[in-house]
Design brief:
Layout lengths: L5 E6 L6 H12 L5 E5 H11 L5 H5 L3 H16 L5 E5 L3 E4 L2 E4 L3 H7 L3 E6 L2 H10 L10 H22 L3 E5 L5 H13 L5
Parallel strand pairs: 1-3, 1-6, 2-3, 6-7
Antiparallel strand pairs: 4-5
């Protein structure tokens, strides 16, 4: 990766508006530097198709070891991308029956080598309302109290990823009606040093 290129891993729990904020941030960033969004799960599925899988559901049903191999293949593919600014849209964790499974274990961070970690957050009550009214996705409806727990776990995990990679982390708020402000904050974070 070139010296001033950025590979920012952007995370956020369901209902926080991460994808909307990332899309808007890329529009802002593209005015200054070539910016690309890559969705980790999509890259993982592209790798899965190469070995004959036809759907994401098949991918989820694979043995864990095979899923890990696909994750590593996707991380390697992302590491090879040499965009000016690359926004990697992914999840910090998956809530499983066994507990929280890390979406960014150390081996993937070591492969991708992010320059920045960004967590999109919002007020827990707002997230609960968004999940209830989102007709486009099959969202788990949980209490604002449990959403707050997910936000707290996310903060711990993003800080841990920062410690493991040496990449700075930022928590960007996306409260109701503030998508443009959140996107501008991501852009500012990633353009630090460009004025020089």
């Amino acid at each position: 990766m070139a010296e001033n290129h950025k590979r920012a891993v952007v995370v956020g729990i369901p209902g926080v508006g991460k994808t909307t904020v990332i899309t808007r941030a890329a529009e802002v960033l593209n005015k200054k530097r070539k910016t690309t969004i890559v969705v980790f799960g999509t890259v993982m599925f592209e790798q899965a198709k190469k070995i004959g899988l036809k759907s994401r559901d098949e991918m989820r049903k694979m043995p864990i070891e095979d899923q890990r191999r696909l994750q590593e293949m996707a991380a390697q593919r992302i590491a090879e991308m040499n965009d000016d600014i690359l926004l990697v849209d992914t999840h910090l964790f998956i809530n499983t029956e066994e507990g929280y499974y890390p979406g960014l274990p150390m081996r993937l961070l070591n492969i991708m080598k992010p320059t920045n970690m960004i967590m999109v957050a919002a007020d827990a009550i707002e997230i609960a309302k968004r999940r209830k009214t989102d007709q486009t996705r099959q969202r788990d409806i949980i209490s604002a109290e449990n959403i707050q727990k997910e936000l707290d776990i996310s903060r711990m995990m993003v800080a841990s990823c920062s410690i493991l990679t040496g990449a700075p982390f930022a928590i960007i708020m996306n409260n109701d009606g503030q998508v443009d402000e959140a996107a501008a904050n991501i852009a500012r974070t990633l353009l630090v040093g460009d004025e020089k």
